[in-house]
Model the fold of this input.
Amino acid sequence: MSGTAIAINAGISVAAYCMAVRMIPRFREMFIKANLFGNDLCKKDKPQVPESFGVLIGCVFLVSLFLFIPIPFAFDEAAATDVVTGGKPATFPHDKFVELIAALLSICCMIFLGFADDVLDLRWRHKLLLPTIATLPLLMVYYVNYNSTTVIMPNFARGLVGTSLNIGVLYYVFMGMLAVFCTNAINILAGINGLEVGQSLIIAASILVFNLIEFALGHQVDSHIFSIYFMLPFLATTLALWKYNK
Done:
């Protein structure tokens, strides 16, 4: 019943977009009064533009996913509630549930760090360390559930090291460094009108298209469904911010 869960997720995403579109202009003056603003240097009169709206959009995104938490399991036969005795059966997919909660925890940490950066003006060395810390919930859950550190090698390297290679603890180092790269590749373009949120919108849309294609082809269905659950509300809330930020 994953199709039903995706449809509900899409409905929640539309509601999140509508909520974000209504909230952004209403919070404008509040952010400016809190001295969280900059001047738009791309216009002659250099009007004041509120900053740190990412925390507002992030909250809408999180609320939409919080409301969605029980949905995938409500339509999962293995996770259905026992109507006779109540509670969850022994077959409840605790591993999937923990993955969902860990992902939300990492996102909460990243939103907090982003807001702290806007308020405290963190140095670059802090921006390199903090995203890695925010990924710890995901990495620890992955370690407990899977702990697979084998990577598939590209065709040109298979003659040297084989089809796959177990890189051990370096896998976790790589994943932490990947989080640092992804967050700062976005953050470094902050302040250029619409570009920061615009590239987030393009990346989210491309990931969602890839998920839908792979889902239709039946490739790693569970993983792509899990990604869709996050990409739909992220795309919706990002689109709302881009509407005003472009």
Observations:
- Residues 94-120 form the longest helix (27 residues).
- Residues 186 and 196 are 6 Å apart (CA to CA).
